[in-house]
């Protein structure tokens, strides 16, 4: 298995992209419409926020899940014991947000959710008929006017040597949502697990857009689109002193959307958040 960046403007981009999602759970796009300068500006403003004391005024709300999650509460991936080495901020249009980030995050959120709806249209178009029969409503409609779609500004601080043994920036996990849209971070480290069990580096050239399947789309497609395990490994040597910022957008359906005979989006999300220890 190999991940190759697909040119968004190529004639067969949509088909090649969906085939990659089916085969690997991941698809990488280049020359896409998400403005890299805007992403970079958010990385800078995000870094300044995490470096400030202001972040403590935005401590996350357990019920609504918006706000700042400090390293002391950050997720323990399913099946793991050590906490990830990261802190993050959860942005929702209805949630709390520092003024220094509000406008940029709002613009990015709107633009990227619209783009994601286009990608869900591609997924639907190239889903085989027997898979489409599982979808209770068009995929792009599942996320329309959803209040649940989440933009996460993530900061992996420089390593100090005092980390818990075995802890890594993000332990192996799968995403919970339908689809995740992730611009390449400012530093490498993201890896995806292949079907044969090896860890492969995700091409992280600045400007690439990485898209991956989450558990909800795996559930809704009866497993045709796999929610693939991924992780973020620790840097080595001199790179340990560098922090890493990333900006995943987790596309979530409206809570009442039926994913399968077993689950609505809401029942599924609650179960998974309890497992993560953040609910
Ligand atoms: O930081 C990254 O590159 C990936 C983050 C991630 O996988 C997650 O937050 O679910
Ligand atoms: Fe993830």
Automatic annotation (TrEMBL):
<keyword id="KW-0408">Iron</keyword>
<dbReference type="Pfam" id="PF03171">
    <property type="entry name" value="2OG-FeII_Oxy"/>
</dbReference>
<dbReference type="GO" id="GO:0009693">
    <property type="term" value="P:ethylene biosynthetic process"/>
</dbReference>
<protein>
    <recommendedName>
        <fullName>2-oxoglutarate-dependent ethylene/succinate-forming enzyme</fullName>
        <ecNumber>1.13.12.19</ecNumber>
        <ecNumber>1.14.20.7</ecNumber>
    </recommendedName>
</protein>
<comment type="similarity">
    <text>Belongs to the iron/ascorbate-dependent oxidoreductase family.</text>
</comment>
<dbReference type="InterPro" id="IPR005123">
    <property type="entry name" value="Oxoglu/Fe-dep_dioxygenase_dom"/>
</dbReference>
<dbReference type="GO" id="GO:0102276">
    <property type="term" value="F:2-oxoglutarate oxygenase/decarboxylase (ethylene-forming) activity"/>
</dbReference>
<dbReference type="InterPro" id="IPR027443">
    <property type="entry name" value="IPNS-like_sf"/>
</dbReference>
<feature type="domain" description="Fe2OG dioxygenase">
    <location>
        <begin position="145"/>
        <end position="253"/>
    </location>
</feature>
<dbReference type="InterPro" id="IPR044861">
    <property type="entry name" value="IPNS-like_FE2OG_OXY"/>
</dbReference>
<dbReference type="Pfam" id="PF14226">
    <property type="entry name" value="DIOX_N"/>
</dbReference>
<keyword id="KW-0560">Oxidoreductase</keyword>
<comment type="pathway">
    <text>Alkene biosynthesis; ethylene biosynthesis via 2-oxoglutarate.</text>
</comment>
<dbReference type="InterPro" id="IPR026992">
    <property type="entry name" value="DIOX_N"/>
</dbReference>
<keyword id="KW-0266">Ethylene biosynthesis</keyword>
<dbReference type="InterPro" id="IPR050231">
    <property type="entry name" value="Iron_ascorbate_oxido_reductase"/>
</dbReference>
<dbReference type="GO" id="GO:0046872">
    <property type="term" value="F:metal ion binding"/>
</dbReference>
<keyword id="KW-0479">Metal-binding</keyword>
């Amino acid at each position: 298995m190999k991940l190759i960046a697909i040119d968004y403007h190529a004639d067969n981009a949509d088909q090649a992209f969906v085939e990659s999602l089916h085969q690997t759970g991941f698809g990488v796009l280049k020359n896409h419409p998400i403005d890299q300068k805007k992403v970079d500006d958010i990385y800078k403003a995000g870094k300044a926020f995490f470096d400030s004391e202001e972040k403590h005024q935005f401590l996350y709300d357990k019920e609504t899940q918006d706000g700042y999650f400090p390293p002391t509460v950050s997720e323990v991936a399913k099946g793991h014991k050590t906490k990830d080495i990261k802190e993050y901020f959860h942005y929702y249009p209805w949630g709390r947000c520092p003024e220094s980030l509000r406008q940029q995050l709002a613009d990015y959120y709107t633009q990227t959710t619209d783009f994601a709806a286009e990608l869900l249209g591609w997924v639907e178009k190239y889903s085989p008929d027997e898979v489409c029969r599982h979808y209770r409503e068009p995929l792009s409609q599942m996320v329309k006017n959803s209040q649940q779609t989440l933009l996460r500004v993530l900061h992996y601080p420089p390593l100090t040597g005092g980390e818990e043994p075995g802890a890594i920036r993000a332990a192996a996990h799968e995403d919970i949502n339908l689809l995740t849209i992730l611009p390449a971070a400012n530093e490498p480290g993201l890896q995806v697990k292949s079907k044969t069990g090896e860890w492969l580096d995700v091409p992280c050239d600045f400007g690439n857009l990485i898209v991956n399947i989450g558990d909800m789309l795996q559930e809704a497609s009866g497993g045709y689109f796999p929610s693939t395990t991924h992780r973020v490994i620790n840097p080595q040597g001199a790179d340990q002193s560098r922090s890493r910022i990333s900006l995943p957008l987790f596309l979530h359906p409206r809570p009442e959307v039926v994913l399968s005979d077993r689950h609505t989006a809401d029942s599924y999300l609650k179960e998974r958040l309890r497992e993560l220890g953040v609910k």
